[in-house]
Write a structure and sequence with these properties.
With 121 residues, the protein is an all-alpha fold. Helix content is 78%, strand content 0%.
């Protein structure tokens, strides 16, 4: 298995076992080796988020969206990052509205609408 793919596999294993710093390291190794996709950046963002680094998480979710604007999870994760972690619901409102506009058939739509209503209060 090529080094980048091995790093992703190790990152996924660490992620699944909630070993966030290890997951961060492996996902960064994968990206450094040339594996550049929205899934890896989103998983890296989540590992940052769960290790108490929300700004780094946001940066990774943003990169994921630039790589693949149709990547639902990276946009969805931004919503919960703003509402649940950063406690900045006003910043989540335009992202919720964008999610609803871009992914009208998503199974995540009920959760997004709920987050939007809470953010507007």
């Amino acid at each position: 298995m090529p080094a980048g793919e091995a790093a992703v596999a190790l990152g996924n294993f660490a992620y699944d076992h909630q070993r966030w710093p290890e997951a961060v390291r492996h996902y960064q190794e994968a990206i450094a080796s040339g594996i550049e996709n929205a899934d890896v950046h989103t998983d890296l963002g989540n590992a940052f988020r769960f290790s108490g680094q929300p700004e780094q998480a946001l940066a990774q979710y943003t990169i994921a969206q630039k790589l693949n604007p149709q990547h639902e999870n990276s946009l969805f994760n931004q919503i919960s990052l703003f509402t649940e972690v950063l406690k900045e619901p006003a910043r989540a409102i335009p992202i919720c509205e964008e999610f609803i506009r871009r992914f009208p058939k998503s199974e995540k739509l009920p959760a997004v609408r709920e987050q939007l209503e809470r953010a507007k209060k």
